[in-house]
Amino acid sequence: MIFKTDFTRGDSLAKHLARTDTNTRVLIREDLSQGVPLDLAFAVPFLGGFAATNPRAVRRVIHGKWSPANEHAGSERLILDLACERLGIRPDAPRIVAQHSKPHADGTDRPDHFHVVWPLVDVDTGRAVRSHEAPLADELISRLAEVALGEPITPGVRHREVVAILRKEGRTAIADQLSQYPAAHGGERMTTGARRSLQRAGFDPKSTAPQLLDCWRAAGGEAAAFVDKARDRGFEIRRGEKVILAVHLASEVPIPLRRALNEASKAGGDALRLKKDDCDDLFGDLPGHVGKQERRDAAMLEADRKKTDDQLILLGREALGDGDSRAAARAFGAAATRRLNWEAERRQDYRTIAAERRSEQGRAKIVEQHRVKRAFRHAGIFSDRRLRRLAVIAAAAGAVLAGGGLGAAMIAGGIAIAAIPTYERARAVAFIERRDRLARYQRDRGVLMQHRIETKAVQAKQTIALDGRGDNLLAGAYLELLIRQRLQGLNYYDRELKRALRTALRKSKADMLEALGRKADAAAVGKVLGCRPMRSNPDRRAVAQVLRDRFQTAAADSLDPVYAWIRDISMSMPACFIDDRDSDVGPTRRAAKPTRGVEISAERRASSGAEGATLQAAAGLNTGRQASPISQEAPRSSAVSMPIGPAPAVAAPTRLASSRSPARVPTRGHPSIHRGKGFGD
Question: What distances in angstroms separate CA 389 from CA 105, 121, 217, 393, 394, one per listed residue?
């Protein structure tokens, strides 16, 4: 039996103890728990809350766990009493006990294991339990429990100290019994957990080294033959982080190969005396070993990196909402660069991954603190003298009252903490200030309307970065021009397009894109942020349409000249008035009334009529019908004005009376007007 304690903050301890994916059953022992609610989600934070009374306490709770080799009725209370006695915990201290059921690796049943959680700080005295001698106390509890319950003795590295303490306490019989077992070596790579894993897999840990030595002697010292024979025995030879390992396939327990071979050969009287260089030369080309902890740490590292990226994206959005385009560009650029480099950083060994996990957690905290500081600076909450004076008075009162007892110190500390504004309180104060300002403006209706307009403008400015398809298209085109300007410069038309795109985008977004455009990996960053560059004609037409919607017509025409050409043709067609009520031969073409004060010559009228007929034929307005080009419907012209009368340059063909259109009812003496169907309408 192994009893082990952990002094921890307990942030995710409740979630770990309540897991049902790795445990088939989780049972809260009501008969063993005391002084806490019988719910892990409430009990663990409740026990950790006592640590707030001790300002020197870094950790909050004590987590103890033990796994007996056999089931014993009533053994749980014996172990809890031993733990309270050796760790210095009061027997009536609040605690919660959980019982977990988990099968062996092969699916067979195994005895349940237990978890207990105590508060780190004593409720009455306010003192924390010392953790310096906790490893020695764990071995004492384990050996005494094994002797009392009749379980196999599993000595640890402090076995001699345990025997000496028992002799000093007068327990000579137990000390003599334990002294028969040798202590575990401090440099032994097979830990207690590894031995227990081998036992759960039905393998004797003591026979591991002799079996590997038999494979070595049968292979004659050849690396390839030894690897094959070890695989037949259930071992896979792998290259570890520093040494060569023999991994037991059934339990995935790594065993140092050189140490196992040297110890087994020395015990048999024929020491091999293998050196590390010898094993590296023989097995240096083998694949590396990736264990359960490495895979678990790799998944947790990915989750930690995602948290940091989320914090950076939130920082960028908040900065963009406040109009700080440079900070937004730095945040978005950092998040995009991290995502690009993540694929190349995944292939790392165990120690590097563990160190990277700690670094990622530190980076996430730094970014979170930066968000809080930026919110305080933007809110300007500390500019109020009353709040600063209140915080100073509360802190001074806490320092003065600290000698008046624990209760008075806690009250003073609570007042000081309440006086310090948090991030949410800063937002609440800013909201109250805006509400009061709005109430003051109720007297003047004009000022109130102006304030509402400004409020709507601020809300529109605080929109999330690059939202909507139109902004993405404009941002992609603008970023592409910035990259091209940095590499090779822009010509006149590109500069004009760049100026139009900046006008169509909001100033904060344009500033952010300019900051991103100066980066060496600006193209990759823009791709991650969703900016679509103009790579084809459909992309240019889409950008041109967005520019037209935002009243940048000249830049849109430069991107989509075909649309502008068709629009100009459609808009340049002259208007035609058709009136054939009193004609027996054919319709008469009449143009619009001329502009007052403008004389138009006969030659100009003739050329204008010919141009109108030609444009009608080119636009396809006279196809598929029997009427003449003059009888077709023609669009009105905003550029050419002609006097009423027949067009001298266009002759109307003769039409039979039976084909004449029916008489039309005049509208107050005016001719009927028909407009052509141009492409731009």
Answer: 63, 33, 81, 6, 9
CA separation for the pair 236, 247 (Å, rounded) = 5
CA count, 13 A, side-chain hemisphere, 579: 16
Rg of the Cα atoms in the chain: 43
Model pTM score: 0.40
Q: Is the pLDDT at 24 greater than 70, yes or no?
A: yes
What tokens were used for 398?
A: 């806490």
DSSP H helices, 550-601, are 553-559, 561-571
Each residue's pLDDT tens digit, 300-356 = 777 888 888 888 888 888 888 888 888 888 888 888 888 777 755 655 555 666 677
Yes or no: say if 14 and 94 are a contact pair by the CB < 8 Å rule: no
Are the C-beta atoms of residues 523 and 510 closer than 8 Å to each other? no
The rounded distance, in Å, linking the Cα atoms of 307 and 84 is: 39
DSSP string across 434-501: HHHHHHHGGG-HHHHHHHHHHHHHHHHHTSPTT-SHHHHHHHHHHHHHHHHHHHT---HHHHHHHHHH
In this structure, the number of other CB atoms found within 10 A of the CB of residue 163 comes to: 22
Residue 377: C-alpha distances to residues 139, 365, 384, 426, 433 (Å): 53, 18, 12, 10, 16
pLDDT for res 86:
93
For 4: left if phi > 0, alpha if psi spans -120 to 50, otherwise beta; the answer is beta
Contact 616, 676 (CB under 8 A): yes
Could you give the CA distance from residue 268 to residue 398 in angstroms, rounded to a whole number?
70
Note the pLDDT tens digit of each residue in 632-667. 444 443 344 444 444 444 444 444 444 444 444 444
Confidence of residue 292 (pLDDT cuts 50, 70, 90): low
- Among 540, 512, 60, 599, smallest CA distance to 328 is for 512
Distance (Å, whole) CA 473 – CA 237? 56
Range 642-653 burial, b when 16+ CB lie within 10 A, else e = beeeebebeebe
Contact 94, 87 (CB under 8 A): no
Domain positions in the chain: 2-154, 192-283, 310-379, 395-461, 469-559, 561-681
DSSP secondary structure of 170-235: T-HHHHHHHTTSPPPPTT-SS-HHHHHHHHHTT--GGGHHHHHHHHHHHHTT-HHHHHHHHHHTTE
Longest dimension (CA), the chain: 140
**Beta bridge partner(s), residue 100:** 26, 113
Helices 445-461, 423-440: inter-axial angle, 10-degree rounding: 150
> What is the residue type of 68?
P
Angstrom distances, CA of residue 181 to CA of 141, 143, 154, 654: 17, 11, 8, 128
| Nearest Cα residue to 201 out of 104, 69, 110, 112 | 104
Measure the CA angle with vertex 478, ends 476 and 482; round to 5°.
115
Structure tokens at 626: 């029997």
In a 13 Å sphere around the CA of 105, the CA atoms on its Cβ side amount to: 14
Residue of 481 and 200 predicted with greater confidence: 481
Phi, psi of 389 (to 5 degrees): -65, -40
